[in-house]
Amino acid sequence: MEHYDFIALGGGNAGLTASKRVKAAGKKVALIDPTPVGGLCSLNGCNPKKVLVRAVEVLHLVREAGEHGIRTGEAKIDWSAVIDRKHRFTDSVTDNTEKGLRAAKVDYIKAPARFTAPDRLEVNGRALAFDGVIVATGSAPRCLSFPGADLVATSDQILEARTVPSRLAIIGAGAVALEFAHVFARLGSNVHVLNRGQEALKGHDRELVSRLVSHLQSLGVVFHNGVEVKAVEANPTSYDVQLSDGVKVGADLVLNAAGRPANLEGLCLEKAQVQYSEHGVDVNECLRSPGNPRIFAAGDAHGARELSPVASYEGAIVAHNFLHGEERRVDYSAIPSAIFTVPPLGCSRFDRGWGAQTGPRCRSCHARHVGVDRFPHCRGEAFIRQSDQRKKQRPHRGRASLRPGG
Ligand SMILES: Cc1cc2nc3c(=O)[nH]c(=O)nc-3n(C[C@H](O)[C@H](O)[C@H](O)COP(=O)(O)OP(=O)(O)OC[C@H]3O[C@@H](n4cnc5c(N)ncnc54)[C@H](O)[C@@H]3O)c2cc1C
User: Fold this and answer.
1) Range(s) of the domain holding residue 378
2) Could you give the CA distance from residue 274 to residue 292 in angstroms, rounded to a whole number?
3) Which of 256, 275, 304 is the last residue of a domain?
4) What pLDDT is stored for residue 349 in this prediction?
5) Could you give the CA distance from residue 305 to residue 392 in angstroms, rounded to a whole number?
6) Which of 21, 35, 37, 41 maximizes ligand 1 atoms within 8 Å of its Cβ, making it the mutation to test the pocket?
7) Residue nearest (by alpha carbon) to ligand 1 atom 47
8) Tens of pLDDT along 309-359?
9) CB of 46 closer than 6 angstroms to any ligand 1 atom
């Protein structure tokens, strides 16, 4: 039977980082992924989304150019050209990733894998033995269970849409939901955000979120909080989204932005004695499975923080702990994050929930006309919150801002 020192399941940020690092230490390494490698972030997540966000940001700047004495005429956007531009960033990702794996001498196997024992995998009928595996299989859009759920589009699909829907209904109110709400509202779509909870962007600074929500409302976004989607019905030209409060929302496109549980389907983790839930593979602070120390998990498959730099960071921790046996622990105490709207909401901490941060050491300031001393008449608005709570064990510092330029 063929033996590998280390196998990465998944060719996104987490799996690529871990496999290349372990290979660089001279080990025999394979990366297994049944779909095109490169990862969600580069192919259908962060990067393509930012192409769309940048397009509407430029549209916004051109539209306000007149205020600065710049005559441009009416600004119009050719959305299909924006999607073409997005493809210029995404189309080469898989080829380049495959080349990178070849250059690194990582064996790439394009097939689904499943565990058959605590130290065995089966791929295409081939049995592979291993000393270590990283489960880095990412996440998948949440399965929705109401009638008509099959009519709802995923973020992959909306990133491909070449026409701008005149009415867009978005299920969910997290980062991805608000980012797409912002893009399409700026393009003139009538956007409805359908939120099961009472507030958007859980875990972020409440004051800034409420300002961002007001800003989105000023662009025409309608928020429905505390509602469930009961059904989506197709009519000849569009959809009707039936909500639990009796309201019916008409839409040309309905987007599933209701979160992304870990993608562990078909791996047969039970055979490897690995515990998991819909939140991801259970791991300790060293990203090792308590049930099977040969197995690690990182990135969205682990699910602690669904951010691409975190996936890469965790992949590196796994490589280190596999190679050196010494247990490096994950530290999420300073993870910057951003909501890519215009203006963006930036936060230098994520882990404890900004909502809890109040008290004498938490300061807020609202600054209009940012940098007015150095740049007279520049336009902008910033709202910044700083927290500096020195607790006995762990100092608690952070900053969140809603301002031009992040
Ligand atoms: C629309 C959108 C926008 C986003 N924007 C941002 C952003 O601005 N900033 C940010 O930090 N994060 C963002 N994210 C989140 C970010 O993309 C993810 O957190 C990150 O890419 C996860 O990396 P990963 O390596 O864990 O998984 P992935 O990159 O998803 O890689 C998992 C890989 O595993 C493969 N796979 C699946 N099943 C199997 C199997 N059974 N066996 C082997 N391989 C398998 C998949 O094909 C895939 O290639 C965004 C996500 C979305 C959806």
Assistant:
1) 350-402
2) 6
3) 256
4) 56
5) 25
6) 41
7) 35
8) 999 999 999 999 999 987 899 998 878 888 999 888 887 654 444 444 444
9) yes
Give CB contacts under 8 A, 24+ apart, made by 238-242: 238/167, 239/148, 239/151, 239/169, 241/169, 241/192, 241/194
**234 contacts: CB under 8 Å, gap ≥ 6:** 148, 151
Ligand 1 center to residue 106 CA distance, Å?
20
Rounded Cα–Cα distance for residues 156 and 382 (Å) = 32
Q: Smallest Cα–Cα separation from 257: which of 177, 366, 365, 337?
A: 177
Q: Are residues 275 and 132 in the same domain?
A: yes
C-beta separation of 203 from 226 below 8 A: no
Q: What is the pLDDT of residue 399?
A: 57
Tell me, what's the pLDDT at 402? 66
Tell me which residue has its CA closest to atom 26 in ligand 1. Answer: 299
Is 398 in contact with 353 (CB distance < 8 Å)?
no
Report which protein residue has its CA nearest ligand 1's atom 7: 46
Q: Is the CB of 176 under 6 A from ligand 1?
A: yes
Q: Which of 256, 271, 298 is the last residue in one of the domains?
A: 256
What does the pLDDT read at residue 296?
Answer: 98
pLDDT at 215: 94
Listed as ranges, residues in the chain with pLDDT below 70 are 348-406
Check pocket membership of 299 for ligand 1, CB cut-off 6 A.
Answer: yes
Question: What distance in angstroms lies between residue 10's CA and the mean position of ligand 1's atoms?
Answer: 9
Q: Other CB atoms closer than 10 Å to residue 158's CB: what's the count?
A: 22
Q: Whose CA is nearest to atom 17 of ligand 1?
A: 41
Task: Say yes or no: 279 and 393 in one domain.
Answer: no
Q: How much is the pLDDT for 25?
A: 98
Q: How many domains would you assign to the chain?
A: 3
Residue 131 and residue 266 share a domain: yes
Tens of pLDDT, residue by residue over 34-82, are 999 999 999 999 999 999 999 999 999 999 999 999 999 999 999 999 9
Domain assignment present for residue 79? The answer is no
Number of helices (H), then strands (E), in the chain? 9, 21
CATH classification of the domain holding 169: 3.50.50.60
Residue 360's pLDDT is 39
